Amino acid sequence: MTTDRDDEYSKFVPIKQQFEIVPYKDKEHYQCSSLSVASDNSCERASRRGTFHQIIATCAVLLLAAACGMPIGYSSVLLPQLSVTNNTNEHSEIPINIAMGSWIASIHSLATPMGSIISGPLADSIGRRTTLLISIVPMCIGWCTIANSQTFFMIIVGRFLCGFAVGILGGPGQVYIAETTEPNLRGLLIGAPFVAYSLGICVVYTLGSSFNWRTVAWCGNILPILASLAIFCIPETPNWLLRHKKVESALRSLSFLRGNEIVAQKELNDMVKRLDQELATTKTNENIFELCCQRVAIKPLIIVITLSLLQMFSGTFIVVFYAIDIISEFGGNFDTKFAAIWTGIVRMVCTIIFCVILLFVRRRRILVLAGIGSGLSCIVLSIYLYTRNFSSEPKSHADVMMAAICLLLYIAFNTPIMVMPGIMVGELFPARIRGRTAGTVFAAMNVALFGFTKAFPYIQIAIKMRGVFMIFAISSFLVSIVMFMFQPETKGRTLEQVEDYFREDNWLWHKRDKSYKQVPNSKTSTEA
Questions:
Q1: Same domain, 358 and 228
Q2: Distance (Å, whole) CA 279 – CA 246
Q3: Residue 336: which domain range?
Q4: Rounded CA separation 345/341 (Å)
Q5: CA 90 from centroid of its chain's CA atoms
Q6: Tell me: the pLDDT tens digits for 217-272?
């Protein structure tokens, strides 16, 4: 670095006091183009380099997310092959009955909340990146246990370990992506884990259609091993490093993720200032319950929990779980293995489309439209089921197609409702409690989903499928209403700006401080 460059650099980063807060006149100073030390071309190269590094870091997490999608769909591969007699009329290696099969399918959902509960404290104490690496250990042990199983109990143990690993990943994975990506990329990248989950489900369905369940279990170790190598090469989040007084490491991490040391230094100065202000207002020995009762935390907690409950009652996962059974009621004859594969493909494609839409459309608008669209789809399907119930005409191929079209529209419109709670966990929670509350919220969501999934067959018997879809429709419309009233717009905002919004006195979005529309760069400000 030349003397002139050192002089110019010292205007923004004092050498004697490296982390002194640098004053600036406006937010345009965040852009590389405002720095005379670099040309426009070099700034563009640095910006592209930073974007590439953020995508690489996210892809490392996505490998692990895809690995966690495989045990979610594995029961659909395992159960048919473990039935008392298989399709070749040969006895299965480990015969099971209906009750044993239900335990194999459900033990994963019971183990996931346990992993989620400990993931929060782990992410806050040892780091987001290290927690992700730890989750790989029970995942690989679980797959190896299943592949070598000789008894029903060993399969249960293996399924439990895989579910436990999935629970550990959920919260820290979302938090890692939220804390390492810039606002203009966060919308796309923070929704990508849900694409990876769907991809993992598709992979295990495809493998299960061609290979024995033991071979599929051995293949389940490939993605976790690749993910461990990738995650080992990416940095810890700057936010966590700074909070643990590892300032130099935070600067190196941020320089890698932004592609420019000067821009990284300025962003780090801002983070230092906010952390100092936070510590000045924080009481000593303040526990997590007291932190969650503060206004800046209780408001996003209520929003996320409400959306999660409405997501569950809108049938987001129930319809996916029982899609084949619903279509079967119309007398359709099809290969269930390929039907399961196509269900996973449709979900994955819709999630990819939604993540791309997040780049161009505001979060609030997406959620409102998604609730209306999925609600209307459920109403149409409910009315159709009601009219067909009293029709004397025999069920035809057209009936199957009608049900499939309605379900496809429902999955398409309901995809944002499926993805957004996970995104909101990473975007809305304040930094002090983000790691711990993320794990707890994911645990609560999985426990509630397990209970609702277990109760669904009895609900279906009581009010029939047409009544079930009417409940889904009402819940979907409530999503639109609640999100329109309370959900803040986070597109193009930094996590610090979102946190500042929740410090205000208002609860309703339309009563917000209008200055919240200000965003850190000109590109996003035109979209706000």
A1: no
A2: 16
A3: 287-521+524-528
A4: 6
A5: 42
A6: 999 999 999 999 999 999 898 888 888 888 888 888 888 888 888 888 888 888 88
Burial (Cβ within 10 Å: 0-12, 13-18, ≥19) of residue 276: exposed
Q: Taking the chain, what is the end-to-end CA distance rounded to the nearest angstrom? A: 39
Residue written as tokens 């969501």? 445
Query: Domain check: are 443 and 365 in the same one?
Result: yes
Task: Confirm whether 366 is domain-assigned.
Answer: yes
Phi-psi region of 245 (alpha: psi -120 to 50; beta: other; left: phi over 0): left
Return the pLDDT at 77: 78
Q: Report CA torsion sign: 340, 342, 345, 349.
A: negative
* Cβ-contact 253, 236 below 8 angstroms: yes
* Whole-angstrom distance, CA of residue 424 vs CA of residue 374: 20
Copy the structure tokens of residue 44: 């563009």
User: Do 395 and 491 belong together in one domain?
Assistant: yes
- From CA 519, how far away is CA 186, in angstroms rounded? 14
**Weakest mean pLDDT among 176-185, 315-324, 376-385:** 315-324
The residues, ordered by sequence, that sit 6+ positions from 5 with a Cβ below 8 Å of its Cβ are 37
Quick check: 375 pLDDT over 60? yes
Crossing angle between the packed helical segments 434-486 and 363-389, to the nearest 10 degrees: 70
CATH of the domain at 292: 1.20.1250.20
DSSP helix/strand/coil, 91: strand
Domain boundary, last residue among 205, 234, 263? 234
Contacts of 346 (CB under 8 A, 6+ apart): 408, 411
CA gap 141, 162 in Å, rounded: 8
**Is residue 270 assigned to a domain?**
no
Residue type, 151: T
For the purposes of burial, counting CB atoms within 10 Å of the CB of 417, is it exposed (0-12), middle (13-18) or buried (19 or more)? buried
Amino acid at 273: K
Phi/psi of residue 314, nearest 5 degrees: -85, 0
**CA dist 258 → 30, 80, 179, 254, 522 (Å):** 12, 49, 12, 6, 18
Please report whether residue 3 resides in a domain.
no
Same domain for 331 and 210?
no
Confidence (pTM)? 0.69
Please calculate the CA angle 204-205-206 and round it to the nearest 5 degrees.
Answer: 90
Residues of the chain with pLDDT > 90, as a percent, come to: 13
Q: For residue 232, how many other CB atoms are within 10 A of its CB?
A: 10
With both helix axes pointing from N to C terminus, report the angle between 40-81 and 336-357 in degrees, rounded to the nearest 10. Answer: 160
The verdict on 226 and 314 lying in the same domain is no
Is 21 contained in some domain?
no
Torsion sign over Cα 205, 206, 208, 214 = negative
Number of compact structural domains in the chain: 2
